[in-house]
Amino acid sequence: MSDTWISRRGPGFWIGAIIGLMAAIAGLAASDAINGPTAIILMASTGGLLYPLMRSGERCEERSGTSSPAVRRYNRGMLAASLAYILGMGIAVWLTDALGMEGTVLWVIAFLPILPIFAMIWVMARYIADEQDEYLRHLAVMSNMGGLALVLGLASLWGFFEEFALVPHAPGWFSVPVWALGMGLTRWWLARGDNAPAEDGV
User: Fold this and answer.
1) For the chain, what is the domain count?
2) How do residues 115-148 score in pLDDT, each as one tens digit?
3) Which residue in 38, 85, 118, 130 could disulfide with 70, CB within 3.0 to 4.6 Å?
C-alpha cells in the first residue's frame, strides 16, 4: 500500500473503515455467526489499518502546519503501543481458548494486552512534556479529554442500561478503542474548526 494512495484519503476514511469493520464484526458476533474468540481476533485484525490512518493523519498535519518532531515521535510511539496491544490481546485470547491456560499462567497471559496500555499512557505523557508548541500541546490535551469524556459517558450509560437488563454485558477492554476513537474525533473536530474559513466581516 503506497503512501501516495494513502495520502489521497483523509483520516476520516480510515476511521470510518475501522468503525465499519468493527460494527460488522460485532453484528456477526451478536447474531452468533462467529464465536467470541473469533470476534476478538477479527477485531484485532483491524489494527492493520492503523498505519495508513497514522500516515494519512501525518500528511494532514504537515499540510495544516500542526506537525512537529514531538508529534511524529508521539504518532510512532502510539502506533507501536497500539499494535503491541492488539497483538497481546490476540495472543492472550488464542492461548486461553486453544490451550486452556489457567492458574498463575493465566494471570501472566492477561497482562499481555495490559502492558501496552501503560506504554500508551507513557507515550502520551512524554509527548505533552516534550512538545514546545503551546497550540499543539493544547490540541493533545483537549483530544485526550475528548477520549476520556467518551469513555466515561458511554461506560456510565451502558452500565446503567446493563444494571436494568436493557443491554448485554460489554467487556471492559472496549474502553481502549473507545478512548482512541474519542481522541481521534476530538482532534479532527478541533482541526476542522481551526481550518474553517472566517466569516465575512470577521
Assistant:
1) 1
2) 999 999 999 999 999 999 988 898 889 999 999 9
3) 130
Give yes or no for a contact between 135 and 114, defined as CB atoms under 8 angstroms apart: no
Among residues 115, 109, 131, the alpha carbon closest in space to that of 83 is found at 115
- Domain residues for the domain of 8 are 1-67
Q: What's the farthest any 2 CA atoms get from each other in the chain?
A: 69
d(CA 97, CA 91): 10
Is residue 122 a part of any domain in this protein?
A: no
- Are the CB atoms for 120 and 82 separated by under 8 Å? yes
Question: Is 43 within a domain?
Answer: yes
Question: Is residue 110 a contact partner of residue 61, using CB atoms and an 8 Å limit?
Answer: no
Residues 6+ positions from 121 with CB-CB distance below 8 Å: none
